[in-house]
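Q: I'm writing a short explainer about Splicing factor YJU2 for a general audience and would like to include a description of its predicted shape. Could you first generate the structure from this sequence?
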Amino acid sequence: MTERKVLNKYFPPDYDPSKIPRLRRGDRRKQFNIRTMAPFNMRCNTCNGYIYKAKKFNSRMETAENVDYLGLRHYRFYIRCPLCCAEIIWRTDLESGDYVLESGAKRNFEALKTAEELEAKRQAEEEEELANNPMKLLEKRTDQSKQEMEMVEVIEDLKQLNQRQATMEADHVLLRQMWREEEALKEAEKKKMMH
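A: Of course. Here's the predicted structure. Afterward I'll give you a sentence or two in plain language.
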């Protein structure tokens, strides 16, 4: 039998380590194996299978080259489709605070994201119009001041109403107590008359 725990390995006299071919693993050394979740719903291009948001994957992560935003690093993630094992690649997009699918899948339609984009676009157009047109800016300011005045009036009315109700409540309690005392006296007189 051979030795179970091999401490020494045999190297023949003509052994030359430089003649052994090395595997080219330059790309793999830059990548890290991590456990990640799918950041959005997507559909695989190969098998048309759905991959839902927050599904966990063992993925490879690397720093994306030639992509720069404010000097920050972007990361690229490689996963495999759980149904057909096709590779799906996405990367971070720091400018929009989201992720961008690069290949292997198609992102599903997201109504909320589209609505947010449309709202941001509308606000940008409105701000641009206000910056270019001083009359619109003046109209908007007068509308805002008018709304503020109306709100102040409503608040004042509510304060007055609350003050009236607070005093009415105390008066109401006193009147009710006096009425109860009078009713108790009447009941006592009726009982005396009966006996």
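A: For your explainer, you could say: The first strand starts at residue 32 and ends at 37.
Q: Perfect, that's easy to follow.
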